[in-house]
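haha ok so turns out i had the wrong file open the whole time. this is the CORRECT one, sorry everyone. sequence first:
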Amino acid sequence: MGRSSETNPSRGIWKLIFPAVALLCTLPLVAQKPQEPSPPKYDVHAETKMKGTVDEVKLPPKDSEKEVAHLLLKTGTDTVDVYLCPKSFLDDMGVSFSKGDEIALTGSKVKQGEADLILAREVVKGTDTLVLRDDKGNPVWSWHR
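then structure:
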């Protein structure tokens, strides 16, 4: 007959050591934060101009004014997602958009994951021009703090 773990001390030690080693090996995996996708970068070489009608205004939730506001813009048969700026910057500038607004914009076509979107640099609504980025694509709202 074989020995039980009571009569074989090395077997009993392994019962204690193995779970501890397994836990130590998995801790780094648990401790790592999932990486947030980095925000898309403005590419002046992918800059485009377009006109269209605001189909939908997407604003962040009430207590998230620092998050980006964006529009769905209808251009002919296409609808494009246009990222503007933090909602708080729109509020500071006294600018708002509504469904049906006719706008013209200059922005950079970029990809975020599988999605195509436009990072707006300048938006013209009627006689008002909202400048969101400088000519190199750097956000102007960061100057505004």
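Strands lie at 47-58, 68-75, 78-86, 102-112, 115-125, 128-131.
again sry for the mixup
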